[in-house]
Amino acid sequence: MSHPHLHFERCGEQQEVAVIRLARNAKRNALSDELVLALRDLFDNLPADVRAAVLDGEGEHFCAGLDLSELKERDAVGGLHHSRMWHSVMERVQHGPVPVIAALHGAVVGGGLELACACHIRVADETTYFALPESSRGIFVGGGGAVRIPRLIGTARMVDMMLTGRVYNAQEGERIGLASYLVPKGEAFAKALELAQKVATNAPLTNYAITQVLPRIAEAPGDQGFVTESMMAGITQSAPEAKEFMRAFLEGRAAKVRGN
């Protein structure tokens, strides 16, 4: 899993968390085709015993978006296929084998925001800023942002970001839904890792239902969603891990939910 611009390591007591780090610091971790394809290959080949992943960026920025130097020779057909290639990679992040927590800092811009929105949870530190500058470059989002970003913040906010070049800071981004957590400068990775380790203790089938089935239920007509929910409720509770978790709770061996 080695790549000059994509680092991979494992963390946790049982090495159950994969840490995936964009490492193109000189380009603010801008996404070249080579790097995007390396992400695809990595998510396609995660070890079977990995239960969660953290996606991070080396240096001061998470990701400054598409490497625009690769656009200059692309025609309309090439642009179409390039966008579809990005879609396939983002699908592997969002609908891959494990929940993915993004550790955001510095620039989360353009394609970098599209990548962050393909993750299941986003942790932003106070240096984070969000933007979609495609209109000022004469282009349009192409990595799934037109679908994923409005689902998080609404179409009107995305229209505003793209038409005017509006930049949201970390606090604003957390308020409108671009981030789930806001932490002090330099602490995004530690918080993301903490969350990933917690997520990794869940029953794998329940994590699968939450990340893969729940979003589809939310988009389905109500009657279809109710049936799908019932099916997943029945399937997940039959898993061996679920039965052990339930026994632990009933026997007083599991912590009860309490307020902060």
Characterization of the model:
There is one protein chain. The chain has helices spanning 33-44, 76-94, 111-118, 145-153, 155-164, 170-176, 188-199, 204-219, 222-237, 240-250; strands at residues 6-11, 17-22, 52-57, 100-104, 107-109, 121-125, 129-131, 168-169, 181-183. The chain has 260 residues and is of the alpha/beta class. The strands form two sheets. A six-stranded mixed sheet has the order 1-2-3-4-6-9, sandwiched between helices. Strands 5-7-8 form a three-stranded mixed sheet. α1 (33-44) packs parallel to α2 and α8 (204-219) packs antiparallel against α9 (222-237). The longest helix is centred in the first third of the chain and has 19 residues, at 76-94.
Backbone shape: globular
Number of domains: 2
User: What is the second-level CATH architecture of the largest domain?
Assistant: Alpha-Beta Complex
Stretches with pLDDT under 50, minimum 5 residues: none
Secondary-structure class: alpha/beta
CATH superfamily of the largest domain: 2-enoyl-CoA Hydratase, Chain A, domain 1
Order of helices and strands: EEHEHEEHEEHHEHEHHHH
CATH fold assignment of the largest domain: 2-enoyl-CoA Hydratase, Chain A, domain 1
* Side-by-side strand order of the widest sheet: 1-2-3-4-6-9
Number of helices: 10
Question: How would you summarize what this structure contains?
Answer:
This protein is α/β, with parallel strands linked by helices and 260 residues long.
